[in-house]
Write a structure and sequence with these properties.
The protein has 7 helices and 7 strands, in the order αβαβαβββαββααα. It is of the alpha+beta class and 170 residues long. It has one domain: 2-Layer Sandwich (Beta Polymerase, domain 2). The strands form 2 sheets. Strands 1-2-5-4-3 form a 5-stranded mixed sheet. The chain has a two-stranded antiparallel ribbon with strand order 6-7. A hairpin with a 2-residue loop joins strand 3 and strand 4. Helix 4 runs antiparallel to helix 5, helix 5 runs antiparallel to helix 6 and helix 5 packs across helix 7. The radius of gyration is 16 Å and the shape is globular.
């Protein structure tokens, strides 16, 4: 993914928040990890979003996000929307871990554009919840990056019932 394209995508995400299409967002997955550690090869940009609820019983739907982006000329492709050439996958941030990641996301400046990124501790736990070898490697890379608050990682893992690898000595 070209860096200048990512900046344009991050600006679009900010517009989605400003226009009330989404309540908030956090970059997660491999692109989220690169804010804390070395670059990781990835196909797409994963974005956890909170959606404005229209009623207490509303079913979460990404349809308004897709409709808004389609009106701006960004078309869906399978589970992605291609925004400025970057395949972006929107994920409803409803599970408790994801809600917490959205609430505590860190703000970075990316080429003059503000971007919200899940903490390395949340990214580790998200990767451990989806136990594929690639995600476990990403979790270990983040853990070894020197950006992790071990006490907070332990507390989050305990709160969300996620088991940390014993070899990490957290």
């Amino acid at each position: 993914m070209e860096q200048n394209r990512l900046g344009a995508v991050f600006a679009e995400l900010g517009s989605l928040v400003a226009e009330g299409v989404i309540g908030g967002y956090a970059i997660v997955g491999a692109v989220g990890a690169i804010f804390y550690t070395e670059a990781i090869r990835t196909f797409d940009l994963d974005v956890a979003v909170s959606l404005p609820q229209t009623s207490a019983r509303a079913i979460l739907s990404l349809a308004p996000v897709y409709e808004h982006l389609r009106a701006r000329g960004f078309l869906p492709e399978a589970e992605h929307v291609r925004i400025h050439g970057v395949p972006v996958q929107f994920l409803a941030g409803d599970p408790p871990l994801w809600r917490d990641a959205l609430a505590t996301a860190r703000t970075f400046d990316y080429e003059g554009v503000e971007v919200r990124v899940a903490s390395p501790e949340h990214l580790i736990l998200m990767a451990l919840e989806a136990p594929s070898p690639r995600r476990r490697e990403r979790a270990a890379l983040l853990f070894e990056s020197g950006t992790v608050d071990n006490a907070w990682l332990r507390a989050l893992a305990s709160r969300f019932g996620i088991r940390l690898p014993e070899t990490w000595n957290v």
